[in-house]
Structures are given as structure tokens and as C-alpha cells.
Amino acid sequence: MSIRPMRSWRKIHAKIKQRMVNFAENKKARFDYEVLEKLEAGLVLKGFEVKSIKSHRADLTDSYVLIRGGELFAFNIKIYPLQPANLKDYREGLSRKLLLSKKEINRLQGRIQSQKLTLVPLRLYNKGDFIKLEVGLAKSKRKYEKREVIRRRETEKEIQRSLKTSGH
Asked: For the chain, which residues make up each domain, given as ranges?
């Protein structure tokens, strides 16, 4: 009979910290665009913004990403403050700088210009103690493609309903 060594508290604490949590997701972007490639970018945030994001008070709907002056910026990401009385001059949809290497930004800029693609924020999540933004390099869907997706969903729902009512 062998005795197992006790796990150290540091290892347990590190595993707890590594658990990833989605704070916000842009479901509309996945419907409107076909995501070709995903990237992970850091965000430049203030302390209270991090606290608000961790309490799930962020919204990515209608947000977008642009390259300006060789840097990446996210626009219209709404981060609602926990205590609005303390922050009278704060606006939710400010532009926020994204952290990516110059090499990555140049590669993205080339693909965007040559293939007519778009950068779309997909989700906000944590990685350890850091807040990350998943950015998708995407191609816009046409109206008929969107209609086809809706039609497929509806037929699947009808099939499920008919199976439930028939007793299978």
C-alpha cells in the first residue's frame, strides 16, 4: 500500500484560477458573419471595468474592431459600471485598445484589404487573471445564406415537435 503525497495548496489554487469563464458573447456576429479565423487579444481596461466585466455587466452586441494607425481598437463594447453614481463622466461604449503584436496586426491588415474581410469581437473571457477578447476574422453572410440557416432551424424544430407528439 503506497501513500499518495498531498497536493500542495498552490497547485490547487492555480487550477482554480485557470478555469475559463465567458463574460459576454456576441451571438449576432456568428449569425451575420462566417468566422474564418479566431484570435485572442488582450484589452486595455481600468480597474472598475474589470470588476464590471467579471460580474457579467458587459455587452458585445453591435461592437466592431478597426485597425487605426497600426493599432487595433474595439468600438461599442458596452461595459456598465457597478456603481454609476461614482462615475458621472463615464461612457459605456468607448473605444478600447486591443493588445496584439505588430506582426499579427500587419498580417490581419493585409488579409482584410486583399480579401475584403471584417474583424468582429466574438466573446469576452478570462485567462487566468487577465480579460481577453476573442476576435474573429470574418466574411459577411448574404441574405439568402441567413434565410437558409433560419429555414434549417425551423425544420429541425418541427421534426423534434413531431417526434415528441408521436411518442418516440
From this structure: 14-141
* Under 8 Å between Cβ of 33 and 136: yes
Report the CATH superfamily, name and number, of domain 14-141. Small protein B (2.40.280.10)
Residue 103, C-beta contacts closer than 8 angstroms, at least 6 positions apart: none
Cα–Cα distance, 48 to 21 (Å, whole number) = 18
pLDDT in tens, 35-85: 888 889 898 888 788 888 888 888 888 888 888 888 899 898 888 887 765
**What is the maximum span of the chain, computed from C-alpha positions, in angstroms?**
67
pLDDT (tens digit per residue) in 85-99: 566 666 666 788 888
Are the CB atoms for 141 and 36 separated by under 8 Å?
A: no
Tell me the pLDDT tens digit for each residue of 122-166.
Answer: 889 888 888 889 998 888 777 777 788 788 888 888 888 888 887
Q: Cα(first)–Cα(last) distance of the chain, in Å?
A: 51
| Secondary structure (3-state) at 49 | helix
